[in-house]
Write a structure and sequence with these properties.
GO terms for molecular function: metal ion binding; phosphatase activity. The protein is built from ten helices and eight strands. By secondary structure, the chain is an alpha/beta fold. The longest helix is centred in the middle third of the chain and has 22 residues. The C terminus is likely disordered.
Length: 253
């Protein structure tokens, strides 16, 4: 089994508690778009999180167009994408907080130099950089080690498309077998899994019963192990690096 030398971290609700803030802004714009199309349905941020967590705004708009059978032209879609970025970044710069325990793990990994580290996100590059800067995590990642499905590819896409992970692997010159991804959502986990990368599913940003439910859903998708808290990160890595497999990997924590 190849030695793990690379860790890819999702950003939103994996390193930074940003999804709730972002989806508040998304809901306002989504409702504006629905109203402009004469569609009576309206979304709250909470409803958007439930339906579209892990997708970027462009991916969300593609899903809404398919659901409600309308079409935005390219320029109109791009205008809304830019508006959403601006609104979300303003909220993040004002209110974003790190996921509990994430900064401590990043600091330890950074000091150990055991792994190369990168951020691999669906969100726009400006948004990802604003998030990690706000919570003082940008110091752990080289400037070119932040990858965005919305900004870093020739054709913008969103997880669960594996394109951004395949791009990141090619850029860092690593194989999937040398890499671990940390993801919190179905779309994010699928993106990494489809790229052949073993996944630690972080569910610490979910509340109450949703934490256990998401853990089960992500295990069903094929993640290697579920991490409820960042304090379990080292044991999760040990589990993957050992090549262990189990019907219930969480029992190894």
């Amino acid at each position: 089994m190849p030695k793990i030398t690379q860790i890819f971290f999702d950003c939103d609700n994996t390193l930074v508690l940003s999804e709730e803030l972002a989806f508040e802004a998304c809901a306002d714009l989504a409702n504006e778009i629905l109203e402009s199309q004469g569609i009576p349905d309206r979304y709250t941020g909470e409803q958007l999180i439930k339906d579209f967590v892990g997708q970027n705004f462009r991916g969300m708009m593609i899903s809404l167009q398919a659901k409600y059978k309308f079409e935005l032209d390219h320029d109109e879609l791009e205008r809304y994408v830019t508006m959403e970025e601006d609104k979300v970044i303003a909220k993040l710069e004002a209110k974003a907080q790190p996921c509990v325990g994430a900064c401590e793990v990043l600091q330890r990994l950074y000091e150990s130099k055991k792994y190369d580290m990168a951020v691999v996100s669906s969100s726009a590059l400006r948004r990802v950089r604003a998030s990690i800067k706000k919570v003082d995590q940008e110091k752990y990642f080289a400037h070119d080690m932040v990858f965005s499905a919305a900004s870093s590819l020739p054709k913008p896409t969103s997880k669960p498309d594996p394109a951004i992970y395949l791009h990141a692997l090619e850029y860092v010159k690593k194989t999937a077998a040398e890499t671990v991804a940390v993801e919190d959502s179905k779309s994010g986990a699928l993106s990494a899994i489809r790229a052949g990368i073993p996944v630690i599913a972080y569910v610490g940003s979910y509340s109450g019963d949703m934490r256990e439910e998401m853990g089960k859903r992500l295990m069903d998708l094929g993640v290697k192990i579920v991490m409820n808290d960042w304090s379990q990160f080292d044991k999760c890595m040990e589990f993957i690096e050992s090549g262990a497999d189990s019907e219930n990997p969480q029992s190894s924590l």
